[in-house]
Amino acid sequence: MEKWPSSSERHLDEEIRRSFEKVQLPAESYSELIMNRIDQTAVKHGLLKKAMITLSAAAVIGICTIGAGFVSPAWADTLKQLPLLGGIFEHTEDPGLKLAAEQGMTTAPALSVTQDGVTLSITEAFYDGTRLALGFERSGINEERVLAVPGALETGGLDSAAKGLLGIPTVTLPSGEPVGYGSMSTGDVDGQPNTLLLELNALLNTASYGDEMTVNVSVPVAQIKEPFVFQVPVKKVTEGIINLSPYQGASRDDFQYTVTKLNITPVSIRMVITSTGEVPVSPEQTGEYAPTEVFYELVDDAGNIANPQHWGYSPAKAIRHPIVDNLYDAFPQVPKAITVRPYTCTFDGDMEIMTDANGERVKTYYPELETTIVIP
Amino acid sequence: MEQGNPGSPMNPNMIEEAIDKVSAGERQAYTTVIQAYEKQIYTYCFYILRSREEAEDAVQDIFVKVYRELGRYERRASFSAWLYKIAYHHCLDQLRQNKRRSRLLSLYQMHLRDGNDGQRDGALVDTLFAGLTSEESALLILHVVEQYSFEEMAEITGRSPAALRKRYERLRKKLIQQKENKGGYLHGEVAEFK
Description:
The structure holds 2 protein chains of 2 kinds.
Chain A: H1 7-22, H2 31-39, E1 53-56, H3 73-79, H4 95-102, E2 111-115, E3 118-127, E4 132-139, H5 152-155, E5 170-172, E6 183-187, E7 195-201, E8 212-219, E9 228-235, E10 242-244, E11 248-252, E12 255-264, E13 268-276, E14 290-291, E15 295-300, E16 305-306, E17 323-329, E18 337-344, E19 346-347, E20 364-365, E21 371-374
Antiparallel strand pairs in A: 1-6, 2-3, 3-4, 4-7, 5-8, 6-7, 8-9, 10-12, 11-12, 12-13, 13-17, 14-19, 15-16, 15-18, 18-20, 18-21
Chain B: H1 12-23, H2 30-49, H3 52-68, H4 79-98, H5 101-113, H6 120-130, H7 134-145, H8 150-157, H9 161-181, E1 185-186, E2 189-190
């Protein structure tokens, strides 16, 4: 039986509770950051060393046009405004950006802003209508870390005490409207000190942007009052862009999906799929086992396989995603045809995804759900 | 003197309902869960980790982990107790991994220096917490602030209720002693520290 607390003890308890209540969250809420992290479970391993932040917005399906052909070396030379030696993009593990850098599809804006001893430069840019990537270099400061903890600069968090840490860049159009995107990632590049890579993926409504535009980029920097502001000219890679609206799909029982959008660029493939109905279940996925959501693998006519760059999964059985907007790495050659191969993985009784002896996820394919899209 | 609903800032039925929705595929319902608990989990992590920066990271990591592990949530314990369990072990793991006590101490001292008169009460508790280990801080919060029973705390921490009770009683004595040594209570009122 507990003793009655003494007056001193009661006061102590009240004091502790009051103080606990008084602690404020440094941010209004972390729910958006957390939900976006959940959305982007699969991190591009090794690309971003630490503090990778992902943000995403609802997918929007637009209307597409068709182009043809791939980038020629001569054209690439004209696009590359300044020579780059060992640029940021080449050091990422993102094959699309590496390819873009190697094939000269990037531009070198060579823009620099210096404030209070800190210089920030935008050294590389890439834009293909699906993705906008910017490479930053920082100098004039001896600080190992590059990216501040999200929200720390805005809230006066501890990171604002380390001069030169960079906040999340914002990218806006000349009208002041933000550039819409499906997902965003920011981080420093492994092995490249003082660099920052910003990627806006699955860009929205870019048809209205035109092939050339200037975007405003604003970067908050710790202990420097004004953000670093750049006007960055961006030139769209137009050769080798194939935009299709196939409206092609397949069904099995009451599950049905349609590929509504397929954008192929020299560096990536974006596919938007809508689906209805319950996730298909194989006989092995019953009892304590259950299927995951449906994943969509792409196979080109040469047998090369591509999986979504963000290969996360929801920890819920047979969860339905009515709209899926995935980005894939490009195939080595322009495919003549792409087969969409839906599959599920299997949760065991502990809600762990089952893997084979090599640690690879066990996939259950549904041949009747495959569809082949001919690339014109 | 346990509260009927320890650890829960809102109607637990609403939380259970939100969890059901998440399990049924309504992913967005998880924001209800986050917003209901993020402040208290942040504060809990802050007092264990003694670093605002690490507590911010921890609260995000914990909610991502909880989402991924929702399938393991058994309703025999309250959701908040389960959440605290994950938070408790996450923070201890974090401390083990970091092994940077001196840095934590300097960060903590920086935090104290930043305090002002308006935060006097907070500073008082910080002073009390300063002499405690992370596990003692966790114990204090779970029992005094969240008002979990020792049985519930045993579920959260993986220790026996008897051991927790004993440790808590020792901790109480230590705190009262510490407070009295610093000029503590005067005629039942909280003395003001400057």
